[in-house]
Amino acid sequence: MPLVLAPLALVSACGITDSGPAQAGPPAAGLPEPARPADVVHVYFSSPLGLERVSRLDRGPNSPQDALNRLREGPDEAERARGLLSFVPPDAPAPTVTGQRRGSVDVLVPRGWGTSRTALRQLVCTAADAVGTADGTRTGEVDVRVRRTPGGATDTQRCELNPGSGRGPATPESNRGAETT
């Protein structure tokens, strides 16, 4: 009998009191809802290997105008450290989207943009990516109709990707040549 009492004495001396169940808060309700993912806008900057697509968090739903506004801001400090730069004139206003349909967008380029072919390619690829994101059209299949003056002639361009490089758009044949800034 003394052997049976010894374990009982140890258990009763462990500090556990007979206080009943403790309050622990509300019952489990499952996993919390995941946060809504941030909207992302893509802009294209120049690199030694061609144009490069950069993702930026956006303040609202992605639209071609939002993308062109972000393009005008230029690369941030980290992007410049990676060798990215923009040929978009920093003191000129952003281009204006004047129309958009599935697979196409009309853009008015403001004065001060000059004739830089790389700036034009940055604009075309940025606008095409935003349209493609919005309506499911592949970026390279979006027609970007560029006007230099209101009511002026339209130059339709596409963002052509460089096959196999994975780096971004290549210089379209119509845009090949020396840069002018």
Automatic annotation (TrEMBL):
- Recite the UniProt keywords alphabetically: Lipoprotein
Q: Give me the stretches of Polar residues compositional bias.
A: 172-181
Q: Which domain of life is it from?
A: Bacteria
Annotated region Disordered: the residues are 55-77, 137-181
Q: What is this protein called?
A: Lipoprotein
UniProt source species: Streptomyces auratus AGR0001
